[in-house]
Amino acid sequence: MKTILISIALLCLPISAFAFGSKPADIQEQCKEQAENFYRDGKNHLVVTFEGLAMPSESFVYRGLIEKLQNTEIGSTFAVRAHRYKNAENAMTCIREWVNIHHERLNLTLIGHSFGGGIAVQSLLKTLKQENIKVKHVITLDPRDNSSSIFSCRMQNPGNEKYTRPSHVGQYINFYQCGGGLPGERVSGAENIEIERATHGNLPSQELVFKRVKELFEAL
Questions:
Q1: 75-111 pLDDT, tens per residue?
Q2: Distance from the CA of 86 to the CA of which of 27, 43, 50, 95 falls in 20 to 30 A?
Q3: What total number of domains does the chain contain?
Q4: Is 50 part of a structural domain of the chain?
């Protein structure tokens, strides 16, 4: 019964946006078509998201944040590719297709929650820098990796942040919480915003996160 319910939940999601388990050749073809369609419509904003350890059916970033944005007046102005945190290479395949079509006009946003922010986004940022691809926005939500503390982030030493905003990123906003389960890390050089009374799981769905990200997208 549980397996059936999960399958039904996945069928309710916009399959074209997801790259969970897709083959590289399929991802390349999907992204090329997506990029071409947006180019014809005069749109150039690609949003690449990464979930953490959660099951695809939970999709904290997609369900908690992206779907809300898609249901607003700006919902048709950006394309989405959603990944698990282990799929940074697949995300890079897609980004290359968008760069080939949009070139320097591409507005690229990376969003990652938990391991998606602390592992996938950080890995992808290194590859993007090597290929001289600029990133308009990076948004991380409770970024963590295997060495992150299980205790409150208030115990972290200021000035000793694990992550740093790289030079090829235009704007980096890091949302984190300290008291609702696994705490997130702060990011040096980023706009760090602590969300009180949030949990690790529901951080992406917080209203303050939605409003701040919507403002960024509206400004493009």
A1: 999 999 999 999 999 999 999 999 999 999 999 999 9
A2: 43
A3: 1
A4: yes
